Amino acid sequence: MSHSERTLVLVKPDGVQRQLVGQILARLEAANLSITALELRYPEQRHVEQHYQEHQDKPFFGPLVEYLTDSPVIAAVLAGEDAIHTTRRIIGDTDPANADSETIRGELGVDSMDQADDEGRALRNLIHASADPEDAGREIPLWFPDHEPAE
């Protein structure tokens, strides 16, 4: 059974730099998701570290934090029926090289985990989206502390 929920989306620096923000958000809106908050942010290191705290012991954590604090990101809250699953289906696999060609990462992505690992840097995969309701519940207040869920 479907239900209305909210999810956090970050258009990462590579998506902003490549001027893909409008295209990415339009694809999400076309799936009947509503943007209920939107902001251009220059995240601070501690903010990104808190967001990705579950990865702090992984080798990519430092490069990921550096990547996300180096340039602006677009932070957005999307709402709609099954927003989390719908968003993740539209954006595709974390690794653009493995993403279905119909997805945002599959169509627009130009990086791969193998290449990022070989170069010792963060994966440039355009977009972050909450993985599940628990992550959304933690991430949305972190990026939008005053955001109130729609009734």
UniProtKB/TrEMBL annotation:
Q: Which cofactor does it need?
A: Mg(2+)
**Into which EC class is this enzyme placed?**
transferase
Q: Which Enzyme Commission number(s) are on file for it? A: 2.7.4.6
| BP terms from Gene Ontology | CTP biosynthetic process; GTP biosynthetic process; UTP biosynthetic process
The secretion signal range is none
Extract the GO molecular function terms from the UniProt entry. Answer: ATP binding; metal ion binding; nucleoside diphosphate kinase activity
Q: Which UniProt keywords apply?
A: ATP-binding, Kinase, Magnesium, Metal-binding, Nucleotide metabolism, Nucleotide-binding, Phosphoprotein, Transferase
Chain residues that bind ATP = K12, F60, R88, T94, R105, N125
The record's active-site residues are H128 (pros-phosphohistidine intermediate)
Domain annotation Nucleoside diphosphate kinase-like: ranges = 4-151
Q: Name one Pfam family in it.
A: NDK
Q: Which InterPro entries match?
A: NDK-like_dom, NDK-like_dom_sf, Nucleoside_diP_kinase
The yes or no answer to whether the keyword Phosphoprotein is present is: yes
- Note whether Zinc occurs among the keywords: no
Q: Which family does it belong to?
A: Belongs to the NDK family.
NCBIfam families on file: PRK00668.1
Concerning PANTHER family, the annotation shows: NUCLEOSIDE DIPHOSPHATE KINASE
The protein in question is named Nucleoside diphosphate kinase
